[in-house]
Structure formats: structure tokens, C-alpha cells
Amino acid sequence: MSAGTAVVPVFSAEVYLVSVVLTQPGPPWWVLGPVAAVGQLLGKAVHYLAARGALRLPKLLKRDGGREGWRWPRRLGELCERHPVGGASTVLLSGLVGVPPFAAVVLAAGMLRVPWLVWLPSAATGRVARFCLLAALPGLLRLSTPLAGAPLC
């Protein structure tokens, strides 16, 4: 589910993960979090490779580098060259908290040809932390226990 929603975002992987934790007995958060993160990274790798030009896209989806609106990747690339740590930090922060949106950061990283060995560790660290926190959240808030008959304290 996580990989599928990363490629075609019709549903939130985060909502699905929390729903599974709340409704199903199963693996602990420290298993579910990394599994969900790996699925997300596999799906987002498709976007990264497509933006980088390594995957062929249907003609309708191809970007037009000559249009006026596509100046921002060049400007962002220049900024990242001046501040190399900033690019990896942005990917990590986006993967963790979603600001700036992770999907946009993945596309920008591909368009700017950020090396795979820079993008992947930053994205993986952010995503694993995010999904582990989300999978642990119901237990931390005591939402995973049945409410009927359970003491309030």
C-alpha cells in the first residue's frame, strides 16, 4: 500500500498505517515503520528517476525545459551548489515532517540530478523516522487499547 500510494497518491500512506495499527493486532511499530518507509521510498524512487530522466514518461507527462515556468529548477540547483548540506537537510526535513512537501522535494532532487547516494540516505532517514513515529503514536496515546471497559487512567 505504501509503495502504491507513493507512485499514485490517491490515498495517504500515513492514514493507512495508523488505521492498521489501531484496528489490527500485528507487528510492533519498530517493524511497521521501516516497512512502510521502504514502500514509500520504492514508490518515490520512480518519481525521482522519472524527474532525472532515467525513466521514459508518456509524452503527455514530459516536462518542457524551454518554458518560462521551468526556471526554478536551475535557480534551485544553483542554490544547492552554493550550500551542499542544505539540499540533503531539506530532503531529510521534508521526509520527516512533510514541509516542504516530500513529493515536490523528490521531483526537484531528480530534476537537479542530486546524486542517488545523497538523496537516498537523507530520504530514508526522514521517512523511517516519520513512519516509526506514526506507527508508535496510537500506543503512546493509548489509542490502541479497546475503549470499552478500559480504565481511563
Using brief descriptors, characterize the structure shown.
mainly alpha; 7 helices; 0% strand; elongated
Task: Characterise the protein shown here.
The model is unreliable at 146-153 (pLDDT under 50). This protein is mostly helical and 153 residues long. It contains seven helices and no strands.
SSE inventory with pairings:
Elements (H helix, E strand, L loop, with lengths): L1 H6 L5 H11 L5 H24 L19 H11 L1 H14 L4 H10 L4 H25 L13
Helix pairs in contact: 2-7, 3-6, 3-7, 4-5, 5-6, 5-7
What spatial form do the alpha-carbon principal axes imply? elongated
Integer-rounded radius of gyration: 18 Å
Question: Structural class per helix/strand content?
Answer: mainly alpha
Mind describing the biggest β-sheet?
A: none
User: What string, H for helix and E for strand, traces the elements in order?
Assistant: HHHHHHH
Distance between the termini: 35 Å
Overall mean confidence score, pLDDT? 82
The percentage of residues in β strands lies in under 5%
Uncertain residue ranges: 146-153
Portion in helices: 55-70%
The total count of helices amounts to: 7
User: What is the count of β-strands?
Assistant: 0
